[in-house]
UniProtKB/TrEMBL annotation, chain A:
The modification 4-aspartylphosphate is found at D62. GO terms for biological process: phosphorelay signal transduction system. PROSITE patterns: RESPONSE_REGULATORY (PS50110). Keywords: Phosphoprotein. This is Response regulator. Residues 5-132 form the Response regulatory domain. The keyword Membrane does not apply. The keyword Phosphoprotein applies.
Automatic annotation (TrEMBL), chain B:
One of its GO terms (molecular function) is phosphorelay sensor kinase activity. The keyword ATP-binding does not apply. This is histidine kinase. PROSITE patterns: HIS_KIN, PAC, PAS. It catalyses: ATP + protein L-histidine = ADP + protein N-phospho-L-histidine. It comes from Flagellimonas allohymeniacidonis.
Length: 132, 624
């Protein structure tokens, strides 16, 4: 199944650009929105709680970012309206292979997956399957 | 009993029958009139006559009839009397026997019974003497002699005779029949100083009549060494010593205990002196404080300058610890807490020492505190070692943090660049469109450069952590700062900040010159980088000095940092806080590592939109 849109939250512009190409070529979606840190994503997501049809189907979230990192955004979402957690599939997308990061991600029940970089077409196919 | 009697005879405690008594007995026709207990018995010991006092002496009434035979009066006849009875021959020499019997009143009595044969040879006169009191006194003295291990001795210088009591023999561990002589007696004294001394004292006693009372070591007949006390008195006749006599006491046990105690005391004194422990004794009632020599040494106070009142101690305590210390004393006196506390003192030369004080309170029967005794130990060295240990732990903790950061770099930055390369090369291979391929190649180049940059930074960090041959020196602060400012002159001219420098020309801090320059550069470029666009940048650089540290501060009026949010990770690697494109999160991490390596501290104060102040603390003591 195809996603309407995907939010890509990562401070690495090279990764974002490469990931967008890969996402689009995989057919997951044609609409990828870039955010450099958690705060930018938060500022966009919060107002969309009142218009759920405009929410992204998937948010790929990096952990280590300046200003507001991935964990801080997840904490904010925990306190935000539930629609944000229910309607958006949130996947951690990180280069960290530290077990403590993986374990910490399990503490957030609304997280749908944990992907370690590099992002592959197989990862994106799984995401598409998860939408059905 | 025989032994006791022997002793009685030998020591002449009992008076023998005097000549006048004997004359009276032999000349009297009327025995009954004699004023002492005398009886006349025939050779079968049948009582024929007796003096009037006999009734009273044996607790009979005057009207009572006495037993017919002597044995009826005294029980069994002494053995010598029985032998005489059998022999029936003449007994020219008087016979004396000591007998005991239970009187009619039920009391145990002792008698000396002396037998004299009458001139006609038809019988014997018997003289009775009650020696019960003397016997008891003698037994008691024997017991006392035995308990105190006191023997007696005597040298009759006229007849050249020597007497040792049984206890004296026992002390020398010789048999009862040992016959002492003066030379032999002296030879029991341990060869060397003890024997030389007794020879000198005995000679002085005989020649000059000087008595003595001293302690010696003797070697007994069984080869045992013993401490003895020998007391000597001299009897002089016409200016000449005729007799020396005295007592001899076994003091080995007491002396050994005393010597052991002395050894323990000496050991304790050595231990106390070598361990810097001072002992104090405080008479609470009279406010008298007594210190031992170590206390004066600890407090660096001269004895003559110490008033001996508790206030004198108070005045030595560091002002910051005085209240706490006095409270500890008060609580101990009130019985609330044991006196076990630590405080600082200021010695006369102004140096500070750490003292551990322990004490015990003694109370009277009413429970009132009357005395405190305790010890003070100089724990300054322990304190310093403890501080050093804490510093090492702190360094270890910091190094662990660095390792974690290192792991983070490997995990995150290296992997993020390498995964980018992996993604992009895959995409490059799959995509044949030249325009896209060109873009992918450009991105691969960027990722490769970033990977290289990360490796360089990593190398720089490792170099700080592992370089043990750093050149530590006193670094001139203002000169170093000037050079740094010159190196970024172009950047400064472009931004045109107002820079105030309040640092004395001669100020120096101990560290690594290159690190200090690098830290100054990093803090200055941070101020330039994170300035507020709408306001002219102002940078204040100043220094402060106290007893322990020199503090150099860099303050700016820039964007500041949200310390509530980022304070714990401010000095972490690759931590950026403003979202600046050119922020790499490396500078502060490296500065922190450099400060840690120099055993210096870096602190930050900041408020968002109000600016930041970084304080660099350099110890005024040289690096160990």
């Amino acid at each position: 199944m195809k996603a309407k849109k995907v939010f890509l939250v990562d401070d690495d512009f090279i990764f974002r650009e490469a990931a967008e190409v890969l996402i689009k070529s995989s057919g997951l979606t044609e609409e990828v929105h870039h955010f450099e840190n958690g705060l930018e994503a938060y500022d966009t997501l919060i107002p969309l709680a009142d218009s759920p049809n405009q929410l992204p189907d998937i948010m790929l979230l990096d952990i280590n970012m300046p200003v507001m990192n991935g964990w801080e955004l997840l904490e904010e979402l925990k306190r935000a309206q539930s629609v944000l957690r229910d309607e958006v599939q949130i996947h951690i997308l990180t280069s960290s292979i530290a077990p403590e990061d993986l374990n910490l991600s399990k503490e957030y029940e609304f997280i749908n997956g944990y992907i370690t970089k590099p992002l592959t077409k197989a990862d994106l196919d799984k995401l598409a399957q998860g939408l059905s | 009993m025989t032994n006791n009697i022997k002793k009685i005879l030998t020591l002449s405690l009992f008076k023998p029958l005097t000549q006048s008594m004997k004359t009276k007995i032999h000349s009297s026709t009327e025995i009954k009139d004699l004023p002492f207990p005398v009886a006349f018995v025939d050779k079968r010991f049948e009582i024929k006559q007796y003096s009037d006092v006999f009734h009273d002496y044996f607790d009979f009434k005057v009207t009572d009839t006495l037993p017919k035979y002597l044995q009826g009066l005294i029980g069994e006849l002494p053995k010598s009397f029985l032998a005489l009875k059998k022999r029936k021959s003449s007994q020219k020499i008087p016979l004396s026997e000591f007998i005991s019997y239970v009187s009619r009143k039920g009391e145990l009595r002792w008698h000396k019974l002396t037998l004299y044969e009458c001139k006609s040879g038809k019988g014997y006169y018997l003289y009775f003497e009650d020696v019960t009191k003397k016997k008891i006194a003698f037994d008691l003295s024997l017991q006392a002699e035995h308990t105190a291990k006191i023997g007696s001795w005597e040298v009759d210088l006229v007849n050249n005779q020597i007497y040792w009591s049984d206890m004296t023999k026992e002390i020398h561990e010789v048999s009862e029949d040992f016959v002492p002589d003066l030379e032999g007696g002296i030879n029991f004294y341990k060869k060397g100083e003890h024997r030389d001394r007794i020879v000198e004292l005995v000679s002085n006693a005989i020649e000059n009549g000087v008595s003595f009372d001293e302690e010696f070591i003797i070697v007994t007949a069984k080869g045992n060494e013993k401490w003895v006390r020998s007391i000597c008195s001299v009897e002089m006749v016409n200016g000449k010593a005729t007799r020396i006599f005295g007592v001899f006491q076994d003091i080995d046990k007491a002396k050994s205990e005393s010597l052991k105690y002395q050894v323990l005391t000496d050991r304790m004194r050595v231990a106390v002196q070598s361990s810097n422990i001072g002992i104090w004794d405080y008479d609470i009632v009279n406010n008298v404080l007594v210190w031992d020599d170590n206390m004066y040494e600890l407090y660096q106070v001269k004895k003559e300058n110490f008033s001996g009142e508790v206030e004198a101690w108070e005045s030595t305590i560091h002002p910051d610890d005085r209240e706490k210390s006095l409270k500890a004393v008060q609580e101990a006196v009130e019985g609330k807490k044991e006196f076990n506390t630590e405080f600082r003192i200021k010695t006369a030369d102004g140096s500070v020492r750490y003292i551990h004080g322990l004490g015990k309170v003694f109370r009277n029967q009413k429970g009132e505190a009357i005395r405190m005794v305790g010890a003070n130990t100089d724990v300054s060295r322990i304190k310093k070692a403890d501080s050093r240990l804490r510093q090492l732990l702190n360094t270890t903790e910091k190094q662990n943090q660095s390792l974690l950061n290192f792991a983070h770099i490997v995990s995150h930055n290296l992997r993020s660049n390498s995964s980018n390369l992996s993604m992009l090369t895959g995409m490059l291979l799959e995509n044949t469109e030249p325009k896209k391929q060109q873009r992918f190649l450009e991105m691969i180049r960027l990722s490769s450069e970033r990977l290289d940059e990360t490796v360089v930074q990593l190398n720089e960090v490792i170099k700080i952590q592992t370089d043990h041959n750093l050149n530590y020196q006193w670094v001139p602060v203002k000169q170093t700062l000037t050079k740094v400012l010159e190196s970024i002159n172009a950047h400064i001219e472009e931004i045109d900040p107002k820079i105030n420098i309040q640092i004395p020309d001669e100020l120096k801090v101990y560290g690594v010159k290159a690190y200090i320059g690098s830290i100054f550069l990093n803090l200055l470029t941070n101020s330039l980088k994170y300035r507020k666009q709408e306001m002219k940048l102002q940078i204040d650089i100043e220094s402060k000095e106290n007893e322990e540290n020199t503090v150099i501060s860099f303050k700016d009026n820039g964007r500041g940092i949200d310390l509530k949010r980022h304070g714990d990770k401010l000095f972490g690697m690759y931590k950026t806080f403003h979202g600046n494109k050119d922020a790499k999160g490396v500078g502060l991490f490296i500065s922190k590592n450099q400060m840690d390596t120099m055993n210096a501290e870096i602190e930050v104060e900041s408020e968002v939109d109000k600016g930041a102040a970084f304080h660099l603390y350099f110890s005024n003591k040289k690096k160990n």
